[in-house]
Known about the structure:
- There is one protein chain.
- With 165 residues, this protein is of the alpha/beta class.
- The protein has one domain (9-160): P-loop containing nucleotide triphosphate hydrolases (Rossmann fold, 3-Layer(aba) Sandwich).
- It is built from six helices and five strands; from the N terminus they run βαβααβααβαβ.
- It has a five-stranded parallel sheet, with helices on both faces.
- It is globular and about 50 Å long.
- The model has no long low-confidence stretch (mean pLDDT 89).
Amino acid sequence: MELEKYKVLISIIAPFRFGKTSLLYAYIDIAKKFRRIINIYLPLKTVDNSLSVIIKSLSEKLPEIKNISYKEGLYLFFKNVNAILKKKDLWVILYINEFQFLPDRIRKEGFLTKWDNKDIFMFFRGLTEEFRIGLVVSGSYIGELLDTISVWSGRFLELRLGPFP
C-alpha cells in the first residue's frame, strides 16, 4: 500500500473459525489509511445482492455512480466505474469472504446466467487485469477456493492460516 501498488490479489485460506474474517477486517483497517482506495466488503454467506452492496459502497465516495446502469451487463458497468476511478485516481479493493460462492451469487442476481463457474472467475480475473480493482478473498472450503484462485494462474498471494497454539 505504501508503494501505491493497489492492484492486490491476496487469498486467505483456512478452515472454519481460523480468523479469516478477522484478517479481512484487519486488511480493511490498514487500507482505510490510504485515501486513494475504496474498500468494499462482501460477505457472500449473508449478502444476497452483491452488486447493490458494491454500488452503495462506491456511491459513498463517488455519487456519480448512481447514474451508471448495470442493465447492459456487468462488463459495461465496471468499465464505466473504472473510467470514474481513473479520472479521480482512485482504486477499489473488494474483500470477498467465501469467494468460492461468487458464481452462484452472480447468477442468482441475473448476470452471466449461462456461464459456468470457471468462466465467471475468468470474467473477474479480466476485471482485475483491466480495471482498477484489487481482490482480497477468503474461503473455508479449501479445495474449492484453491480451484477458484487457480484461474488467476498463480497471481494470488496465498496466506494459509493454521491453528493458534
